[in-house]
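re: the backbone from monday

yeah here it is again, tokenized this time
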């Protein structure tokens, strides 16, 4: 370790080099206070703005026909594996559909579940031509279901004023489309209230 005299000389010389415009008296005055603050400016870190990945607009999606199913793909048999996957998904979601499972618990899970691949039937409708349509849901939008029937016909069924039934392992659930006017992503976060009677 250096002696106190050498240390004092070193500090004085260092300050003289660092602050050449200061007089010796001022430097000596700083040393007597035993605390030296050297001016040092930190460079401000420039935050890089994250570039948001811009998706397609609704108009662009329509022009590119991203959600349209080609006519040659509109076959019921192609989507049967999707239905099998959906059934397994719901069984896992409800921890197995056992006979003693509470119906309201299953109903609550199904209201928030993804319905792509579900086999549904239109049981009631204000438009009689929709009643009896049965098929696998291929796409769910805010206001409509796109359903492929066993006759390989793609039906666009509105949710409004329609009641859909959904059967799985002996459990039948009813979906009131008028209360279901949500996108699948929005539905998963919505809290549904129990109501005694619901009209079409």
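seq for it, each position gets an aa:
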């Amino acid at each position: 370790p250096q002696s106190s005299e050498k240390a004092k000389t070193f500090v004085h010389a260092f300050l003289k080099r660092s602050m050449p415009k200061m007089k010796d008296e001022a430097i000596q005055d700083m040393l007597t206070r035993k605390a030296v603050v050297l001016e040092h400016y930190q460079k401000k870190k420039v935050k890089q703005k994250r570039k948001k990945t811009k998706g397609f607009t609704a108009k662009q999606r329509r022009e590119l026909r991203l959600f349209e199913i080609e006519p040659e793909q509109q076959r019921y048999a192609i989507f049967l594996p999707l239905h099998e996957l959906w059934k397994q998904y719901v069984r896992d979601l409800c921890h197995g559909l056992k006979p003693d499972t509470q119906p309201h618990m299953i109903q609550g899970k199904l209201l928030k579940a993804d319905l792509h691949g579900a086999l549904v039937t239109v049981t009631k409708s204000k438009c009689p031509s929709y009643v009896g349509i049965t098929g696998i849901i291929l796409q769910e939008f805010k206001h409509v279901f796109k359903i492929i029937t066993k006759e390989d016909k793609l039906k666009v069924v509105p949710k409004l004023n329609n009641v859909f039934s959904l059967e799985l392992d002996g459990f039948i659930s009813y979906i009131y489309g008028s209360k279901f006017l949500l996108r699948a992503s929005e539905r998963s976060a919505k809290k549904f209230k129990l109501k005694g009677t619901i009209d079409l």
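The chain has a mean pLDDT of 81. The radius of gyration is 36 Å.
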